[in-house]
């Protein structure tokens, strides 16, 4: 039987007075769906919305709750919420960001749906969002995808489109209606989420931080309706300025190596040299890699290389990158390059590109670990910057100036072509081929001892 839950007597610690550094700490999971309604003086609209919500939620055939998060309204909102049998939570901190975060903390559902209380988000559309809940970690009811629309004043609609287009293009975001608050989240993606913005810009911030965890975003078409009563709490000018401040902060994060899809996006970078480098490496490794058998790409990150090797197993230490790659590639394993999660001699091919320079040499232990899991006669593809010439040191110097804090400062083991070739030959490997990118990045193809083939000098 459908189940409504009335837990408005449940008490939790009040949210911090300041929204800065507010972190989502999830309540115990007890329900299928929590609906969070941030409110400020919306009593008259709630009288209409809450009965509609009950009917819509009962129609889903799931366990649910409605949480009204109130910013200290003076119009009887607490009485309306309690009269309708939904949970009422008073949030002392001001702003939409504080309300939405408090709602996340209070929610007990496996999925959390957020919507406005002003009737611009009709309850009847909840069934569409619920049906799309498994499409992504965050599903947005979007005005700006085909089939969507909005009945809004022309200037507000124009400003919304400009802001969304600016963010979408400037931050390469995979959604069009970034500022829509009509959304459904997988609960797990909210755990520990830190929120900094107090107003409606928090919606953009949350989306970016979901992506920064390797989460995915989807949109379904939705037609936005004007509020029925009351006035909007969004201030157009302040709203736009807050978004600009957010863009400045988030641009560095979005384009840093820490973002899970950094390598994936670099393949199509607007910077010609970066795009060339990524695609050149992609071509060489695909040419060197075994075309079949059991192959592992160690430190796969979010590279297109793995996506174009459907038979390969992706291995990376960072869970967020693996979470990103799961949408384009199946076999993925979290693992350390010094302790690979494979049995001895169990792989036909191993790829390690741009990994070995990040690992302290310790007598070539990374190479030994790669060879341990490779069967006799298996193929090893090993790539690293070549510090033996002038090309890579010069590129690294410029790169360090242009992008301080990027990969270059993490290089703790500096191989030259001669040193790397010698390390492989000492271990009995046959050197089969080699190529470079601008004579700066070296990629070797070798065969482990015990197979067929003649070593090259």
Description:
Helix content is about 35%, strand content about 20%. It is an alpha/beta fold. It folds into two domains: about 5-255, Alpha-Beta Complex (Spore Coat Polysaccharide Biosynthesis Protein SpsA, Chain A), CATH 3.90.550.10; about 260-445, Vaccinia Virus protein VP39 (Rossmann fold, 3-Layer(aba) Sandwich). Strands 1, 3, 4, 5, 6, 7, 9 and 11 form an eight-stranded mixed beta sheet that branches. A seven-stranded mixed beta sheet has the order 15-14-13-16-17-19-18, with helices on both faces. Helix 6 runs parallel beside helix 7 (about 235-255). The chain is elongated, with a radius of gyration of 27 Å. About 40% of the residues are buried. The model is unreliable at about 1-20 and about 455 (pLDDT under 50).
- Rounded average pLDDT: 86
Overall morphology: elongated
Q: How many β-strand stretches?
A: 19
- Measured as a percent range, the helix fraction is 25-40%
**Would you identify the CATH H-level superfamily of the largest domain?**
Spore Coat Polysaccharide Biosynthesis Protein SpsA, Chain A
**Beta-strand fraction estimate:** 15-25%
CATH class of the largest domain: Alpha Beta
| Overall domain count | 2
Radius of gyration based on Cα positions: 27 Å
**Major beta-sheet overview:** 8 strands, mixed
Distance between the termini: 75 Å
Low-confidence stretches: 1-20, 453-457
Structural class: alpha/beta
Instruction: Please identify, by name, the CATH architecture of the largest domain.
Output: Alpha-Beta Complex
Number of helices: 14
CATH topology of the largest domain: Spore Coat Polysaccharide Biosynthesis Protein SpsA, Chain A
């Amino acid at each position: 039987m459908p189940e409504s839950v009335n837990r408005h007597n449940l008490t939790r610690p009040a949210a911090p007075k300041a929204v800065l550094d507010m972190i989502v700490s999830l309540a115990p999971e007890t329900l299928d769906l929590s609906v969070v309604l941030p409110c400020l003086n919306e009593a008259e609209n709630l009288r209409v919305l809450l009965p509609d919500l009950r009917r819509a939620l009962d129609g889903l055939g799931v366990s649910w709750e409605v949480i009204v998060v109130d910013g200290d309204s003076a119009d009887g909102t607490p009485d309306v919420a309690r009269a309708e049998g939904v949970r009422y939570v008073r949030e002392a901190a001001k702003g939409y960001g504080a309300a939405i975060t408090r709602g996340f903390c209070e929610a007990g559902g496996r999925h959390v749906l957020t919507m406005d209380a002003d009737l611009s988000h009709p309850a009847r559309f909840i069934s569409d969002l619920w049906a799309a809940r498994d499409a992504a970690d965050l599903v947005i009811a979007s005005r700006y995808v085909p089939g969507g629309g909005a009945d809004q004043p022309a200037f507000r609609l124009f400003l919304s489109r400009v802001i969304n287009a600016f963010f979408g293009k400037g931050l390469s975001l995979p959604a069009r209606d970034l500022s829509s608050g009509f959304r459904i989240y997988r609960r797990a993606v909210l755990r520990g989420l830190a929120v900094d913005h107090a107003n409606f810009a928090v919606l953009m911030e949350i989306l970016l931080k979901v992506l920064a965890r390797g989460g995915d975003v989807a949109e379904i078409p939705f037609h936005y309706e004007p509020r029925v009563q009351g006035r909007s709490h969004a201030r157009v000018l302040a709203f736009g300025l807050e978004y600009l401040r957010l863009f400045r902060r988030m641009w560095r994060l979005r384009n840093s190596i820490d973002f899970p899809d950094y390598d994936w996006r670099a393949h199509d970078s607007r910077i010609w040299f970066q795009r060339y480098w990524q695609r050149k490496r992609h071509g060489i490794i695909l040419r060197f890699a075994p075309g079949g058998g059991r192959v592992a790409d160690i430190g796969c990150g979010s590279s297109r290389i793995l996506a174009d090797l459907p038979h390969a197993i992706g291995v990376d230490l960072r869970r967020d990158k693996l979470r990103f790659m799961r949408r384009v590639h199946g076999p993925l394993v979290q693992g350390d390059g010094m302790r690979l999660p494979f049995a001895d001699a169990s792989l036909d091919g191993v790829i390690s590109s741009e990994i070995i320079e990040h690992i302290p040499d310790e007598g070539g232990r990374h190479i030994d670990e790669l060879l341990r899991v490779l069967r006799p006669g298996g193929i090893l593809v090993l790539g690293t910057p070549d510090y033996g010439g002038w090309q890579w040191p010069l590129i690294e110097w410029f790169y360090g100036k242009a992008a301080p804090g990027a990969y270059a400062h993490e290089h703790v083991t500096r191989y030259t072509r001669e040193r790397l070739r010698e390390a492989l030959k000492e271990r009995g490997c046959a050197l089969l081929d080699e190529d470079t990118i601008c004579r700066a990045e070296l990629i070797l193809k070798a065969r482990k001892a015990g197979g067929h083939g003649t070593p090259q000098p």
